[in-house]
Amino acid sequence: MSLATQINSAASKQFVASLVRSERITPENSPEEVRHMVFRRDDLSFGCKMGQCVRIMAPGQYGNKYHPRLYLVADNDAERDGGVEFAICVKRHSYIDDFNGERYQGIASNYLCDLPVGASVEISGPFGYPFAMPEKRTSNILMIGMGTGIAPFRALIRTIYEKHGSWDGKVRLFYGAKSGLEMLYMNDENKDLSQYVYQPTFKAFQAISPRPALDAPVALDKALEQNAAEVWEMMQNPDTYVYFAGVQDMQASVEKALAATAGSEAAWLEAKDAMQTSGRWNEVLY
Ligand SMILES: Cc1cc2nc3c(=O)[nH]c(=O)nc-3n(C[C@H](O)[C@H](O)[C@H](O)COP(=O)(O)OP(=O)(O)OC[C@H]3O[C@@H](n4cnc5c(N)ncnc54)[C@H](O)[C@@H]3O)c2cc1C
Q1: For the chain, which end, N or C, has fewer CB atoms within 10 Å of the first or last residue's CB respectively?
Q2: Predicted pLDDT of residue 10
Q3: How confident is the model at residue 200 (pLDDT cuts 50, 70, 90)?
Q4: Which residues form ligand 1's pocket by a CB distance below 6 Å?
């Protein structure tokens, strides 16, 4: 069932959660504000997993009751003091109106970023399907993503190294951001994921924009091409799980880079088809 179909058939799934914690995870001198936000629901039957999203029902404008927007789960649900806690990662969004050239604030993301701890929020979901988790700790994990697409990867990396203690297969993260300040969960403000670089099986490859001020594209494709031999070897291994998350805009350049690692478009499509058929290709793009 598609995400849209799930959402349309889920009106009754709405509930209230309260904000437990909200921390800015980009430094103050970064032009982008991104927050890690932890919510609590007093219902032990609630669950949400990495790869899924929750729908925040922000107060609407112009007579609309709600302004609903989706956010990826940044931490698997955890039972705490008789309730369930879960996290999302939110970027404060703004845009320039084409007609008058003025900057406007995105409604839901600003509502969330300004929310005080303790406030109640209407939410529905979860939606989408949880990422498939390898059963064997010798399986390889290849994560490719950008921006707030890091949210499910954070949950995945924490799960394998904290729940399982260690991981024997290769764990590779290719992550793109506009600048080093926006390397979410890996910058000076929040080093959440940096602690795992000491794990012998984990390697993170960071790609930034060559000209962030001019909005030049993040060089995620270059990072993949520079590590083509290992990426392609992993893609061909029937014991590799791939996770791909972030903004839709990156899809074409990433898939082109993956075709280059394969040596041809046909070889890449064949490898992707094998991963999709066996449930080892997990993707959430928006
Ligand atoms: C599956 C999925 C997962 C997502 N996960 C995340 C996540 O983990 N973290 C995250 O930060 N975001 C995520 N998003 C994006 C998020 O859902 C929101 O789209 C984002 O936060 C912006 O919402 P907003 O209400 O702040 O902005 P909005 O107010 O909805 O504005 C968004 C855009 O709408 C246009 N627009 C709105 N009003 C006008 C107007 N009056 N005139 C002209 N144009 C207008 C503009 O182009 C603007 O950029 C996800 C989206 C999807 C689909």
Answers
A1: N
A2: 66
A3: very high
A4: 53, 67, 69-72, 89-91, 93, 95, 97, 106-110, 148, 151, 284, 286
